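thought: user wants a sequence for this fold. calling inverse folding tool.
action: design(structure=
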């Protein structure tokens, strides 16, 4: 959600920040270093999922 003029943006941003915090607090430090600067929780999760699948760490 990139439209900052959307009335729902503030609620989305707050939720996104909360989910990113939960994710970062649940990851190992080496993973945090890899994904810590990603903008959205979805992008963060997608990156972890993609890289974990490539390394055979998650079931396909």
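)
observation: tool returned 60 residues.
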């Amino acid at each position: 959600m990139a439209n900052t003029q959307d009335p729902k943006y503030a609620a989305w941003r707050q939720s996104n920040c909360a989910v990113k915090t939960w994710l970062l607090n649940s990851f190992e430090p080496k993973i945090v270093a890899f994904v810590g600067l990603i903008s959205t929780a979805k992008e963060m999760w997608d990156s972890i999922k993609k890289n974990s699948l490539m390394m055979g760490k998650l079931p396909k």
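thought: summarizing for user.
answer: Here is the designed sequence. The radius of gyration is 13 Å.
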